[in-house]
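User: For a reading group we're discussing how well predicted structures match intuition. Take Nephrin. Before you show the prediction, I'll give you the sequence so everyone sees exactly what went in.
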Amino acid sequence: MALRTPGRVPLLLLGLLTTGLAHLPLPASAPRGFWALPENLTVVEGATAELRCGVSAPGSAVQWAKDGLLLGPDPRIPSFPRYRLEGDPDRGEFHLHIEACDLSDDAEYECQVGRSETGPELVSPRVILTILVPPKVLQLTPEAGSTVTWVAGQEYVVSCVSGDAKPAPDITFIQSGQTISDISANVNVGSQEKLFTTEATARVTPQSSDNGKLLVCEGSSPALDTPIRVSVTMNVLFPPGPPVIEWPGLDEGHVRAGQSLELLCVSRGGNPPATLQWLKNGQPMSTAWGTEHAEAVARSMLVMIVRPEDHGARLSCEAHNSVSTGIQERGVTLQVTFPPSAITILGSASQSENKNVTLSCITKSSRPRVLLRWWLGWRQLLPTEDMVMDGLHGGHISMSNLTFLVRREDNGLTLTCEAFSEAFTKETFKKSLILNVKYPAQKLWIEGPPEGQRLRAGTRVRLVCLAIGGNPDPSLTWFKDSRAVTEPRPPQEPRRGQLGSLEKSGSTFSRELVLITGPSDNQAKFTCKAGQLSASTQLVVQFPPTNVTILANASALRPGDALNLTCVSVSSNPPVNLSWDKEGERLESVAIPPRSAPFKGSAAARSVLLRMSSRDHGHRVTCRAHSTELRETMSAFYRLNVLYPPEFLGEQVLVVTAVEQGEALLPVSVSANPAPEAFNWTFRGYRLSPAGGPRHRILSGGALQLWNVTRADDGLYQLHCQNSEGTAEALVRLDVHYAPTIRVLQDPTEVNIGGSVDIVCTVDANPILPGMFNWERLGEEEEDHSLDDMEKMAKGSTGRLRIHHAKLDQAGAYQCIVDNGVAPPARGLVRLVVRFAPQVEHPTPLTKVAAAGDSTSSATLHCRARGVPNIVFTWTKNGVALDLQDPRYTEHTYHQGMVHSSLLTIANVSAAQDYALFTCTATNPLGSDRTNIQLVSISRPDPPTGLKVMSMTPYSVGLEWKPGFDGGLPQRFQIRYEALGTPGLLYMDVLPPQATTFTLTGLQPSTRYRVWLLASNALGDSGLMDKGSQISVTTPGLDQPSGEPDYQLPTEQPTSISEKTEAGSEEDRVRNEYEDSQWTGGQDTQSSMVSTTDVEPYYHSMKDFSPQLPPTLEEVSYPRGLTHLEEDMAFPGHLYDEVERLNAPSGAWGPLYDEVPMGLCDPCWPEETYEDTRGIYDQVAGDFDPMETDSLPFELRGHLV
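Assistant: Thanks. Here is the predicted 3D structure of Nephrin, as structure tokens, for the group to look at:
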């Protein structure tokens, strides 16, 4: 039944009120009146609403009011985003349009026209906008969408609550498609004003027909187009139907024993489906069943093999489920038919002929009973008595007795007891026996070798016993001397006889006895018996001694004891001869009277007397028994056990060699009886633990095993052996070989030049070999390795390398190598220092250094010398000792191996005081040497020297030269040339300015030219008069090959001196040559020094030379190894000057460049003095205007001396 809510009463009142307002009289001013008035409106939440308002006077100010709140004249109504005014204002249309209405829009509205000059304001009648809110959800208890389990016939309460709605919804319950009338409903206030909820309750009584169907809660409202629904599925529980047993066949309960019985129990209906169980006499048999949920059917199949004991059993099937009030049951009682399971004949079917046999035949229980009858062959015998007794499982037992007389011809016939019944017409039950009639054999004899024939022991002999007739078959038993012959009793005895089985051929029976003849068969009597019958034969066997035994008068023997041995031959046929020997040596013996012998043979005995020694231990003394007739010998030996103290054998090793860190085995070759009880090893007075240690182990034979052997293990090891008879000792030496280790090597070894010295290398090694010392000289050049001028000597562990008349080129590193065959060889490095007096770098006759003499510049003089030991430098000026306490003079001294340098820095150079001749003296304990350096003013450059032709073509000439003294300023070069016979000079600037090679191009073939080379700096050029800077050349013709100079050209043309310095010239790599001095000019003056000799000087500017400076003043590097300690010395500094001495005498130095440290406050080359060479390539000396003194930079002005 649908419910209606009382929410419509307020709506009705509002409607009446609105209607009344609508009929109020309109204002009199028709132009300002309404031509369309709003009306009450009802919409569903979320829909669009429009309240109409038409004004007769366009252009008036119109706005709407909501529950008295003015919305404003703006058509967009900003305060309410969902509100706006629709229509054409010019036509007076001001309709209120509301989007997506919600409950807040449920209110009273009126359209108002603003006051104007022509009339008062107008207000439309109030109208009501009603918003209908549909219910969103229905809350069902039990939970919607679930499945509820109920029991049929019981009452349950279901409730359904709607969500917020307006108006309150109606709720209806539907059960299995039928509306429930018994419900109660209540309307309640919702979660917001103007909203309501409805709660309805129904009572439900489910039936079995409701199982699986829906219980629906339906909510309807004017705001809904279709009702909303929620539901639950009803799972109704109800009991199953009674079980039914489906019996196969017509006779229910009748079954045969052994039959496989299959019974099906079916129960229909029920939720849940029935649980089925089979019982037999109330005891569960099977609890397996299956269900078909679609048809609500439960089935259970019982499969059983019927047995006789199942007779009278009740089989029942029970059905129930969780809501059954009781168990439903259906049963059937079994009636089992079964035959007798067995037939037994009591009594013996074996009897002697012409005697009675009595037998009884008894059956097991059967249902129904069976009858019995007897058969002998195909002849039926009449029983003497029949009876029936009650049996098991409701059955019966039948019994029949039989007695009859047996005859010989009945032997082997079948005697049968047969059981039969009408219930088992297709089956026959029988029990049979074979009748055995006994009677004796008729004849017995033996077939074998003739009596008296001699048989050799080990001969195979075959004896056959034969008999005719008899039942049972004759047993044919063999006897040897009245003892039955059987298989050998102990399995380990040799099989000397093989007894065959009884064999039958027709009425003849035989049994074979095969013998391997032995001593016991000699004159033995073999008999065969069959019942009361018997037959016999006798054998004659020849055999060697059955046993040769040696008897001793003592068991514990020691050296010097007397031993008496007796050899006894127990029995033989024929008699034997006895003899003695020891390890092949024949011994004299004495005969002993024989005793009686077994097996009817002959016995013999002989004795021998021996004197014992330790060498006899373990030897065998052999007794031999020889039969001449049999040509056979039997032997026995006695091993001598002589007790004696330990004795070391001749093969005992006394010296063992091992390698250090390896293993050593000190073997033991000792003889003793008994074996030594202990092996005690002692080393240097200390006993080695018999249990072993970290580095040793005493083996079971007494040998001592050592591992990780060290040289400390070298020495004598004492071995002490002991047994119960005494002790013995031996000494074993362990010689440990180890790699050499250099103990003494004096580094450095010093010698005065021209003197003699031994480089001594003393090692610790084992073994010490004569040729184990070897010497090497370390160096980069192969010729440095030669030791031909040195003497090698060795004595014991000391090797010597003797140097006679020591020379400077012998100084350096030597390596002592010692190899005694044990790896690794030892290597030791020693330096040979050849001491010599100072050798100063002193150009002939003078070296120049240029500096401005205006008291603003500084100059550095570089003095360099070689010598060992260290050198002390002193300076003089014009022969007067220089006062180094003067603050204008600063000296720095550096030592690098045998090369020593002294840098004298003169600050604030004055022409009057410092343009002088400075002398540097180098002194050490072996002597002194000196050189002179002239300090001069800056000037024009000296002419370049050594101009020569390097290559020539018809159109070009390749030139090379050496730069001269640059006068203290950067210099550049210019080539001037003329063709002979052609007036005018041509010139070409050398680019880059620092280059010392140049190719002159633009020449003519077959033309003679004269070429001049000029050097220039800021003060002028060197002039054309110097012979070393001019040359004449003639270019080759076009038909001639390119001309070359007469002297050997260098293989690689250097492009600039800086490149030659980096790559290193050949002279740089010559051993024992030293670099020329380099020095640093003052801060304000670019300067250099150069030899003023007639030889060709070698100079290049250091303007662009910027070597890497070491980190400290005293730190030096060794870039080329031990052989070039004197080369590439690096001193931190900023300015460098170079001097090369050419064509110097033997022992002079090649070019070397040193970086000389100037100290933290030393002058450095200003960065602004570096010039970009690209900007001066086209500037030569001839292009400069004559320079006045005032035009020179201040730092270049000075006194010219």
